[in-house]
Design a protein that fits this description.
heterodimer; A: 94 residues; B: 485 residues; Amidase signature (AS) enzymes; 11 strands; 38% helix; 13% strand
Chain lengths: 94, 485
């Protein structure tokens, strides 16, 4: 399952990254090396093994639905690169 | 008298309690040493002199009132992946270079409550992705035992600062060995608790199902003290477990006669440096002489651990790091539209290794590949966990090397990510399985680089781990040796 240059560009787009020409080549090679190594997982028979996403035997952590104070708006906005009228400001979308 | 910065928590705390030393005095000494010497090692990313001195004065007042605990007035260094209120937290990344968190991680809040002093934030691989601290956007940290060598990673700043007496103790985080491996390479104690033992609230997420916070310390007793302070349920982290926290001090000094130590066959042999093997065998002999029973066990899926880890971890990372979009906090680069702003921000803000892992994770989770990679890796993860469950039916703890080699040279592996990943072979299974592990100094290479022994325990077996680590420490003098620094 070798990754092509085009697939690398597609994945970069999905990940919201832009790669320079040299980096496309380097990443294509390095990602293929890693994927070739990861390929060894296919050699294991995992028929009937349930995938384990989490190790903790806690299913749901419920609590009473009480209203508790959260982070105040001013503090939440403190690190925003741009803000206006108590909101995060982003470049025009439409 | 020995300079105060050389002391451990266990040796400093009684001096503070008896009023023979003031927290301000020890904090000032450490700040001066950091100021004078840290440029040689680059362990600190941020030093908070005014904050540390203010905390030290508060601790002094508390000691005077007789309201002190064992951590009151103890100066600590925090890995820069733990958010600290009003103190810059960078994750060693350009994207968070100017981020001032508006809240404390739960562990930091608990340490503040206990009266600890925060000297500052220490270096790491960017977003904890790496095994050498060379992936920091702010330059690598050097190993205090040999400046041309890596301190290990990703908690390399923590381990080096503890070894070089630039703090009394430190907190790090361990996703694939990031506490244990640098502890081994720097000759200090490093404990990764069971997944769920310590709250991850305020730990900047890398791979949420694997990340765990733990102590790096000068001696085993200190690790027990710090774990005691940070362990326990937190309603802000739904994966922290509501189990009672035992008294970790209690187990120290107890006999280990009859303790069954399993030696996993797969952790010895091919690829293991002969010097590391010799030193680890020496530690096993010490255990035998203390009355522990050694038995060979098998963890048959060990050779698949690195592959499973580098699918699971990168998949979680690609999702976790989607939050760095230039909108809410952190770096923002200009773009002609929203999409371009995202891409410019993330491309300029993340280093090469972080981008590589995001790419790999995005690919592994993308349409058509999810079954082949992510689902398969989670199945293998279940098999690795079963290996440990079977082993712990035969023995109390496992004893093994931490890393296949002593610390390597700076620059030696940067061009080849896969080789770097393979150096994690002995540590990542514990993260995939959620079990606790500790690295305790057990010898030196011919070049004088420290080597640690790794002990692994069953889930929530930290007390037994600490007991066994303490027994080895007390029977040897490796922890008393210091780098020439």
């Amino acid at each position: 399952m070798a990754l092509t240059r085009e697939e690398v560009l597609h994945v970069a787009e999905l990940a919201r990254l832009s790669l320079g020409p040299q980096e496309i080549e380097l990443f294509t090679r390095q990602l293929n090396d890693i994927l070739a190594y990861v390929e060894k997982l296919q050699a294991l028979d995992t028929e009937g093994v349930s995938p384990m996403a989490h190790v903790v035997p806690v299913a749901n952590a419920f609590r009473e639905d009480e209203v508790l104070p959260g982070l105040p708006r001013e503090l939440t906005l403190e690190n925003a690169p741009a803000r206006e009228e108590g909101s995060f400001l982003v470049p025009r979308v439409i | 008298m020995e300079p105060l910065y050389r002391l451990s928590i266990s040796r400093l705390a009684p001096l503070l309690a008896r009023g023979e030393v003031s927290p301000v005095e020890v904090t000032a000494q450490l700040l001066e040493r950091i100021q004078e010497r840290d440029r040689e090692l680059n362990t600190y990313l941020t030093v908070d002199e005014p904050g540390a001195l203010a905390q030290a004065r508060e601790a002094a007042a508390r000691l005077d009132r007789g309201e002190a605990g064992p951590l009151t007035g103890i100066p600590l260094a925090l890995k820069d992946v733990l958010v600290t209120r009003n103190l810059r937290t960078t994750c060693a990344s350009r994207i968070l270079e100017n981020f001032i968190p508006p809240y404390d991680a739960t562990v930091c809040g608990r340490l503040r409550q206990a009266g600890a002093v925060f000297l500052g934030k220490v270096n790491m691989d960017e977003f904890a992705m790496g095994s050498s601290t060379e992936n920091s956007a702010f330059g690598p940290t050097h190993n205090p035992w040999h400046r041309d060598y890596i301190p290990g990673g990703s908690s390399g700043g923590s381990a080096a600062a503890v070894a070089a007496d630039l703090c009394i103790a430190s907190l790090g985080s361990d996703t694939g060995g990031s506490i244990r491996q640098p502890a081994s390479h720097c000759g200090v104690v490093g404990l990764k608790p069971t997944y769920g033992r310590v709250s991850r609230y305020g730990l900047v997420a890398y791979a949420s199902s694997l990340d765990q916070i733990g102590p790096l310390t000068k001696e085993v007793r200190d690790a027990a003290l710090l774990l005691q302070a940070i362990a326990g349920h937190d309603s802000r982290d739904s994966t922290s477990v509501p189990y009672p926290v035992p008294d970790y001090q209690e187990a120290l000094g107890q006999e280990i006669r009859g303790l069954k130590l399993g030696v996993p066959r797969e952790y010895f042999g091919h690829g293991l440096d002969p010097e590391v093997e010799a030193v680890v065998q020496g530690a096993l002999k010490t255990y035998a002489s203390l009355g522990a029973e050694l038995l060979e066990v098998s963890l048959p899926h060990t050779e698949y651990a690195v592959a499973a880890y580098y699918v699971v971890a990168v998949a979680e990372a690609s999702s976790n790091l989607a939050r760095y979009d230039g909108v809410k906090y952190g770096l923002r680069a200009e773009g002609r539209n929203l999409l371009e702003m995202y891409a410019q921000t993330r491309t300029g803000g993340f280093g090469a290794e972080v981008r590589r892992r995001i790419m790999l994770g995005t690919y592994a989770l993308s349409a058509g590949y999810y079954e082949a990679y992510y689902r398969k890796a989670l199945q293998v993860r279940a098999l690795i966990r079963r290996d440990f469950e079977a082993a712990f039916e035969q023995c109390d703890l496992l004893a093994a090397p931490v890393s296949p080699t002593p610390a390597f040279r700076l620059g030696e592996k940067v061009a080849d990510p896969l080789t770097m990943y393979l150096s994690d072979i002995f540590t990542i299974s514990a993260n995939l399985s959620g079990i606790p592990g500790i690295s305790v100094p057990c010898g030196f290479s011919s070049l004088g680089l420290p080597i640690g022994l790794q002990l692994l325990g069953p889930p929530f077996g930290e007390a037994v781990l600490l007991k066994a680590a303490y027994a080895l420490e007390q029977a040897t003098d490796f922890h008393r040796r210091k780098p020439d620094f």
